[in-house]
Amino acid sequence: MYLFAVFCYATVWASFSSCYAYRYAHNESIFYPGSYCDYCHHPLNFWQLIPILGFCLQRGRCYYCHHKISLHSTLVELTFGLYMLSLFASKAPHLWASLSIFCAWSLLLALSDYLTQSVPAFELYLGGLVLLTQKLSWPPLEPGCSLCFLVILVGATYLQLLGSGDLIYLGFLWASFGIQFLLATTCLASCLALCYFSLKKDRPTSLAFIPFLTTASFILLYFN
């Protein structure tokens, strides 16, 4: 029963985050209008909004205009649901509750950054401040290493290799998990971004970095 509840929570949040990111990218209100088909703009019924199941019931096509529905949101729902389920099975309940706040916040920011290469400031700061109330920490590094790494981050932002949103997100990671987690996350995210960039045929001039930071942090949290 608990596993089912966790999976439902995760998929619902992933569905909301996908919707939020889409509306943020198109400068639309999250509250109005209600959910609609991206192609024919017909309002959607409740059953069509059920994460994963709604896509399956419609057989991957809009119930009204029969246009093919993008798999993006469904894949996000399924992936995040399975991840949170596996995290729940491997962590103590109180720790999972704290980590779920971080994961939910990071997912929303990652999807927004992926679509627009920017993040909503209110959600960035609000989620970060809530995260600071949780008791999450990794072992600290030597002060000298910490200072050098922070100088590198500030320098990268000054040279526009990192955006201000990236730096603020990393700052909340540092304050919540410690400098060691920040260093490990940044290194792994950089490797993931480099792999993505090298495999991309049409190489972009810039990359949204928070999706890579989120992926890296999820991997580290799972295996820690």
TrEMBL record:
- InterPro entries in UniProt: Prepilin_pept_A24_N, Prepilin_peptidase/N-MTase
Which keywords fit this entry according to its UniProt record? Membrane, Transmembrane, Transmembrane helix
**Per the UniProt record, which residue ranges are transmembrane?**
95-115, 144-161, 167-199, 206-223
Highest taxon in the source lineage: Bacteria
Looking up Pfam families in the UniProt record yields:
A24_N_bact
- Pinpoint the Prepilin peptidase A24 N-terminal domain residues: 10-88
- GO CC list: plasma membrane
Please indicate if the UniProt record lists Metal-binding as a keyword. no
**Annotated GO MF terms:** aspartic-type endopeptidase activity
Q: What name does this protein carry?
A: Prepilin peptidase
Origin species: Ligilactobacillus agilis
At the highest ranks, the source species' classification is: Bacteria, Bacillati, Bacillota, Bacilli, Lactobacillales
